[in-house]
Input
Amino acid sequence: MGAGNHTGASQFLLLGLSDDPELQPLLSGLFLSMYLVTVLGNLLIILAIISDSHLHTPMYFFLSNLSFVDICLVSTTIPKMLLNIQAESKDISYIGCLTQVYFFMVFAGMDALLLTVMAYDRFVAICHPLRYTVIMNPRLCAFLVLMCWFIILSISLFHILLMMWLTFCIGTEIPHFFCELAQILKAACSDTLINDISLYVGTALLCMFPLTAILFSHSQIVFSLTKVASTEGKYKAFSTCGSHLSVVSLFYGTGLGVYLTSAVTHSSQRHSIASVMYTVVTPMLNPFIYSLRNKDVKGALRRLLSQGAPCP
Output
């Protein structure tokens, strides 16, 4: 099949979370509020880290990148959903759908990779404190982030190139509020065996390996902390790692919950609702988790907000 004969449809239909017209204003207001909170919260984290020299460390460098990725992640899905609700339309163009699939995979994958890099940073800081500044130098930090971008951009591009060979019927319906790769493959009119295999392999690589690395790093951290005599030292280490573990648990817990829910119920609507947890709720809660449990971030945010406040 030639690449030029990829589809019979110029647009898809996103069915959204509900067909009830009375729920549309409620959904619009709810998701707009969540979107604004997510963007504002993560933007404040980025500005606080940039403006405060005390936060110019590897840990907060990675955190600022995570906040940037979370802003991009919600911006990939929610604006189109809100636009469709306001226009009372369910249309999304073929190119727009491919673009949404690509960038969603990029930013969701970057979340997983950045959480892994942050776990490694905490491992070095706690298990090798005397060598921390030597190991986690600015060059290595930049290299790790660039490597994450290279890996996820390449994997996502590979999936999109495979997807472009599929055929889709006119009036194809996507039972979701955004174009998710798994849902797109189910709606294809041609054989998706290679795409399915690639999806399973890619999901395993981007979920199991990072999660295993995160768990291994924190197991080493716990083992190292058992040797620390200072109660204050243990508390500080557990405090910094606790925020990271909370975000990891929220991200992977909700993500796994989505796929377990879809596997058990086979309900597209329940799958869509469950997807809201890791696509919208998790990026929204990340700034609160890191700021509420971190004195340095709270102090930087107070100083940032006090600078922007008008003088009495």
